[in-house]
Amino acid sequence: MNEMDGGNQSIVSEFLLLGLSHSPNIQILLFIVFLMLYLIIVPGNIIIITLVVTDPHLHTPMYFLLANLSFVDMWLSTNTTPKMIIDFLRKNKTISFAGCMSQIFFSQFIAALEMVLLVVMAYDRYVAICKPLHYFTIMGLQRCIGLVVSAWAIGLVHAMSQLIVIVPLPFCGPQEIDSFFCDRPLVIKLACMDLYKIEIFMNVNCGIVAVIPFILLLISYSHILLTVLRSSKVGASKALSTCSAHITVVLLFFGPCIFLYVWPLNITWMDKFLAVFYSVFTPFLNPTIYTLRNKEMKNAVERLRKYCIDSKGNNLKTQ
Fold first, then answer.
1. What is the pLDDT of residues 284-317, one digit of tens each?
2. What is the rounded distance in angstroms from the CA atom of residue 183 to the CA atom of residue 188?
3. Which domain holds residue 241?
């Protein structure tokens, strides 16, 4: 550690991650489980993005937004999971100061981005179900791109507002973070100063990003459900199937984020579970929910499978 201004404060050059377990046997088991999950998350989300880009049947606003969600989910998992997997095999689970700040920045950036993106997806479904005759007029390509760019901008501003407060803090020890990654609430607790005002600022900041989108989502889906109940049984069934998948994703993502960053529980094992859930299991469940419950996605997968088989057969004939 390097001394600061000749005083008794110092800057740590790295942090020690305590991980999820201290038992070698459990760590090996966790290594296998999370490696398998990650090897499903990345290809699963890449398949969704590929299908949306290549299949003309999926060139609609809903699937454009879904492809963006898959990209964000893949990035969310990649921010923490690869290092966590490697650390299961390491005795000293250290991370540099720069690496720690990077994890904080991207975790806050991606979380805020996904929250706003889920609101945009809910708005898309609201227009499709409540104003079907004006859907393609309201949700044109330019409007979709503008909404997605706005989501990225909000995520970037939120992450930067957190980072410019955290980086200058005096970290003079201890260096231990009782988690598998540099989680913002745990890192700032290591700063050697009174954090009351900073914690209030960060909780309010995260509250604005999390609670407002959550309220907007509740309003959107309430309107959708009321409209669906007044529509035909066939239309209602299809709309409810789509919306139930969206609502499931919303609850799985917003729940852990709110209890981690807005109203912290301060229960170590619960915080670890919630962090794992939103950074690993949510990106794993999203492609599963959207592909298994969506008829168009299943048809697109089948078309891609047939195309691959036909291409392979043609290649064999030409040889």
1. 887 777 776 677 877 887 787 777 776 766 665 6
2. 9
3. 6-318
